[in-house]
Amino acid sequence: MNSAWRRVERCRSTGFGQLCAVGRTIISPTSIELAGTGIRVNIVGPGPTETGMFNRFAQTKENKTSFLETHIPTKRMGTPEEIAHAIVFIGTDKASYIIDASLAVDGGILAS
Known about the structure:
The protein is mostly helical and 112 residues long. It has one domain: Rossmann fold (3-Layer(aba) Sandwich), CATH 3.40.50.720. Helix content is 53%, strand content 7%. The protein contains five helices and two strands. Strands 1-2 form a two-stranded parallel ribbon. The longest helix is centred in the N-terminal third of the chain and has 18 residues. The relative contact order is 0.19.
């Protein structure tokens, strides 16, 4: 319970708080409504990912390093492949009992 409550509070306090709240508001009723139909509704929440867009945003290697040291517990960017692997997993039969979940693929940002 403590872990789940902490995630909700972290969601509210981040810059993505509004988006996070909207996502939860949309998926919860939908996931329950579709639960017995074989359709599962979940969210995959990617963290900072090594892309050209992020590198343009950071502008310099020093800015990127500072961001990694300050905000990401793993001290590295995620890769597009890591995000894709999470999406593929949550869509497989190995995740067939997972509904109404929010999977943070963020290098530990949400947990910190």
